[in-house]
Amino acid sequence: MDIVDLQTGLGELTTVEIAEEMSRLGSTDQAVLFRLLDKDRASQVFEYLDVAHQAELLDEFREGRSAELLLDLPDDDRAQLLGEMPAKVAARMMAGLPEDRRQVTAQLLGYPEESAGRVMTPVPTVISADSTREQALQKLRGRDLRNRDIAVLAVTDHTRHLVGLVNLSTLVTSAADTPIAELMNKETHAVNATDDQEKAARLVQEADLLALPVVDDENRFLGMLTVDDAMEILEEEVTEDAYRAGGSEPLEQPYLTATVFHLARKRGVWLLVLILTAVLTVNVMSFFEATLASVVVLATFVPMITGTGGNAGSQAASSVVRALAVDEVQPRDIGRVIWREVRVGLLLGVFLGALIFPFISLIYEWRIGAVMSLTIICICAWACIVGGVLPLVAKKIGVDPAVFSTPVVSTLVDATGLVIYFSIAQVILASML
Amino acid sequence: MDIVDLQTGLGELTTVEIAEEMSRLGSTDQAVLFRLLDKDRASQVFEYLDVAHQAELLDEFREGRSAELLLDLPDDDRAQLLGEMPAKVAARMMAGLPEDRRQVTAQLLGYPEESAGRVMTPVPTVISADSTREQALQKLRGRDLRNRDIAVLAVTDHTRHLVGLVNLSTLVTSAADTPIAELMNKETHAVNATDDQEKAARLVQEADLLALPVVDDENRFLGMLTVDDAMEILEEEVTEDAYRAGGSEPLEQPYLTATVFHLARKRGVWLLVLILTAVLTVNVMSFFEATLASVVVLATFVPMITGTGGNAGSQAASSVVRALAVDEVQPRDIGRVIWREVRVGLLLGVFLGALIFPFISLIYEWRIGAVMSLTIICICAWACIVGGVLPLVAKKIGVDPAVFSTPVVSTLVDATGLVIYFSIAQVILASML
Fold first, then answer.
1. Which of A1, B58, B125, B180 has its CA 20 to 30 A from that of B330?
2. What does the domain layout of chain A look like in residue ranges?
3. Does the distance separating the beta carbons of A241 and B242 come in below 8 Å?
4. Superfamily assignment of B3-110 in CATH?
5. What is the residue-wise DSSP string for A105-137?
6. Where are the transmembrane segments (chains A, B) (predicted)?
7. Is A187 within 8 Å of B15 when comparing Cβ atoms?
8. For B272-285, what is each residue's pLDDT tens digit?
9. What does the pLDDT look like over B277-310, one tens digit per residue?
10. Residues 163..192 of A with a Cβ closer than 8 Å to B: which?
């Protein structure tokens, strides 16, 4: 397949498909593929890449080309990218921008990391509250609305204080002389530029907004958090939660292109914490070694016991973590959560306990069956409480609830579950010990 | 606090806040709160509720009020709600709608469940490809664009075939006599009405669209999948994945209002499957009972071994499940995934193994230390492979990869991990057995 064929092939793919394919390639291959794209297409594809890949690509190109790619990015994306680069490189790149873009970019970079200001699209054009529909449309003509995004316009008074929003679609469909004051929506959500970007993005999602106005401390309009940026922020958040749920720190690069060492480092931290926590289980097992030695069959069930406890706990934790993420549950609901989880745990425990009792009693003896059934009941209830409560406590003390992931919950439940198991065994099997 | 106070308090909350608060209440309280809202506000709040709560509320109201609430919903949301209701109730509700809304709703309900057609917003207004900007704006004036959503318009030929899209913002900012053909974007994504809604929603997200055109088999324009609906679809998808990652089936209702029995049922299925799978571990333990009886200290480490294997496996699985969800990895990458995971697993295993060796050797003896270290190395590598491969296999055979959640992976790794553990122990401790 020669270059011309490849270029024809690329012509048939959509921008998104090319960007996706590129994120699966190593950095040299990426650069080669990228050079094959025509200029406009290249800028478009560049926009869709994630920050890590954008930075890699810029590295591969000569100064002139890099400056061009950077300039073609929307202001908020450019600020995002520069914020992630080493300060020195970022400063050099900034110097290559035309004056007006440099100012806007510097302003965005002035807001704290992870703030709404960092990710907003600056919108210089606003509609005056005392104009009419026709005047507003006249004013818009010829303006650069950075039109990929803006479907909603800010309505302000003469000192740029936000007083409402008007949808472009409302503007377009109404009669020429309607006053803007009649068309605008006054019940307007807005966030401060220093507010957390995740909180802002969630508001966009919950209130079904196309754009959320960002204001300064005096309620002056600065720009919009657009829905596509909000989706990206939430997507990142979801990815973080998904990694944490599996007991690993989130990767900073796509899975296939991250180095093996990067992957190992992100997982190693938690794996280490977990194995240290698992020392508890060794202690519990040692403590009951005499019991284990006299009834060796007890050891046989240990993995089943710890496994079931871990599973029940992880089910409860994942329900509550998710409910917290979508604001269905709050830390103050802790009483209600415990009361639900106790009952759910008991129900599950009784169901499983009743199921296994006859089998274990037949194969071993009824006392072993009784120990197992009772243990399963207690452990299910206990695991559900632990799994339900820990994420709420985390949220309360300001830790990401997703940290109380399945592995963390199950490791904690393992040790306590074994205590329950051996205590029950010692009582019921007293005559055998 | 009397009714008037409560109404004043409600007046200070935003629509979204009220809807959120309602989703935390039981159905009777919900209905009471809902009755306190004025008419417009009630319709708005109703729109933000999820389908389960909407259905509950409609149940609480008399026919007249229900019909009104239903009529105020956007067409796609109404179809969604009716689709979830018992056929008899849905038919009665449909009969209460005016003719035109009934037709639109019936059309949407005609598409398969989970299809793009079911969730699209029907948009009767299109722009003709041979008109000018001014003609297009004239045509729009006075039209009902269902303006909450539409920021992008379909451009069609005279037989309603989709030929491109034009952003309202482009339309508004360009000169009066510009031909639409010049303003429209021809590289247009579109989906068929029978396509899967999740695939469509992901396209909206990946291509940063405000609306995705939905067409019929002849490429005739039917309506738009709007970004807010796409976000909702993806949010549901994420919730499903989060539940599955914790080893439970997704709930059909918010956590706090679902019945305890509902919660138990969604978790019980998997807990049962897992405990049955855990029978494998009992078999492995029984098989090596002689080894256990002669070196009781081996039992002491069982929970630590199974725990570490489960954790390493769940880390790998969650990385790969997430990478699959965002299309970073595909089943055909299985070779690359295995090769990465083996190396990551070995790296992690050697790190942890080297760390625990001196401690265990000191407390017990060096041979026990050697057994444990070697086991940890092998089990980490094995768990990473299993965790990485299973989601890919699932995707390949058309099962949701999230099903190979942490609990499933760790239960599978438990049994095989124990075989590794005891085999290594038998070789190294041969003289002690």
1. A1
2. 3-110, 121-235, 278-432
3. yes
4. MgtE N-terminal domain-like (1.25.60.10)
5. HHHHHTSPTTBHHHHPEE----EETTSBHHHHH
6. 269-288, 294-312, 344-364, 370-394, 406-429
7. yes
8. 988 888 888 898 99
9. 888 889 899 999 888 888 888 999 999 999 999 8
10. 167-175, 187, 189
